[in-house]
């Protein structure tokens, strides 16, 4: 049994824009939070990178503050959730980064990916890894890092260079270089991981030119990865008991992977992820990935990424003058305006501002406001923008139904736009299932902490259920659900106009 005094799990949520440390007590309550902003560099068009050293510095800083706040004698374990797909390379002898970290947003390897498609490799890559060919994923970034230094390939083959995702980079430094591991969820985002064998894949390693000797050991997301060592402001010997990608951690914190509980994060864009029990990767418009390994079972995930959801509303608010309002008043208007009208008067907004994401994947598509008439006012346009979020998420849910293990019993939601009650009710009515909203800002950190708590207490997943954050529930109006199917069908007609590349505004 755990000592009474050692009750705190400190979860490090290392994101793209900030590093956050969250201290969580034995009752699952957040007792302290510390955050530090992270900078992003764009040295060339399409290049997005961060200082790998700053990722470590900021992470150590916030974790140290959290430990000091609660007292080191009370800290039972650390946990890590991290930005996904970002790639780091470093020298094994001294832990120094060979270059900046190439973030998930970086598209410097787009030409490499296009070449792989032209050579006919995409179908095979998707079959093995569950992922479409895209510069988003880590493999092409890792190859770029090796090519950026003299003899990079040879050094990697001789195990003198380490290549990893952010979880492995953090772990290495938190353990004084003693642990070189990543978890299953992060490994599955590299495009080097075989979903069927749950291991690094020789064919993918050869295709991308990544020596196996340079890659970390893959371990379950819940379990001991190593112990802190040699850090100035953190005591030696604190076990690191969980590592997991941030979107996966949020799904775990919502419902522990319960069947039919689909997660949608509403932010600038949206990640929609469903837990599934098999590695079926035949849904071509979505990614199949590892959700997590809880120490006992490997859980898979089906994911669709949408680039413009909250961003669509921000664009429309800006275009209609609403963005000039103070933040609180803007939020109030975004709630009140769509409810003040019965419909959009036939207006549909397809926010393909930089192309369409899942399930369409059309980078050439551009946005469209369809169905304008003389009676259309600002309230109708704002409503159309909010409706576009719900339609896009519903489109991904339809694509998910192609997976044999998929079920939709409830949509678990988080993120800023979910504070809009009108939007949440519309989403519930459109899908015909409950929408369950979490108002906890530290959801990814809580998910990682729960996985650490599981390893700490040596219990099954179900024993964690009473730790889950509460949700506000929006029940669907099934009469309205039937009526909204016509609107959704008309929305899809507007999408078809966009996909045929008839750009501009249709009246």
UniProtKB/TrEMBL annotation:
<dbReference type="InterPro" id="IPR018484">
    <property type="entry name" value="FGGY_N"/>
</dbReference>
<dbReference type="Pfam" id="PF00370">
    <property type="entry name" value="FGGY_N"/>
</dbReference>
<keyword id="KW-0808">Transferase</keyword>
<comment type="similarity">
    <text>Belongs to the FGGY kinase family.</text>
</comment>
<dbReference type="Pfam" id="PF02782">
    <property type="entry name" value="FGGY_C"/>
</dbReference>
<dbReference type="InterPro" id="IPR018485">
    <property type="entry name" value="FGGY_C"/>
</dbReference>
<keyword id="KW-0547">Nucleotide-binding</keyword>
<dbReference type="InterPro" id="IPR000577">
    <property type="entry name" value="Carb_kinase_FGGY"/>
</dbReference>
<dbReference type="InterPro" id="IPR043129">
    <property type="entry name" value="ATPase_NBD"/>
</dbReference>
<feature type="domain" description="Carbohydrate kinase FGGY C-terminal">
    <location>
        <begin position="263"/>
        <end position="454"/>
    </location>
</feature>
<keyword id="KW-0418">Kinase</keyword>
<dbReference type="InterPro" id="IPR018483">
    <property type="entry name" value="Carb_kinase_FGGY_CS"/>
</dbReference>
<keyword id="KW-0067">ATP-binding</keyword>
<protein>
    <recommendedName>
        <fullName>ATP:glycerol 3-phosphotransferase</fullName>
    </recommendedName>
</protein>
<feature type="domain" description="Carbohydrate kinase FGGY N-terminal">
    <location>
        <begin position="8"/>
        <end position="252"/>
    </location>
</feature>
<dbReference type="GO" id="GO:0016301">
    <property type="term" value="F:kinase activity"/>
</dbReference>
